[in-house]
Amino acid sequence: MGIIEVDMFEQDIDSVDHPEASRLKSLLEEVAMDFECKLDFFSVEKGIVSFSFDSDVLMAEIIKVLQNGRNDQH
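RE: above sequence
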């Protein structure tokens, strides 16, 4: 299973302890509970969020959402 990376925050947000990153982590943990899985990995470095769930189904759904969002911008 891979890791999803998203350029989500300003570069000065460089820690999982930052309030915005912490809120996102909590949200991802809620999503994991809804899908009956767990958030395996979460990090924030220079505004880039990296995360992974232990569910291939959820990971695939997130990739679809991210791809659709990118396609909507073009």
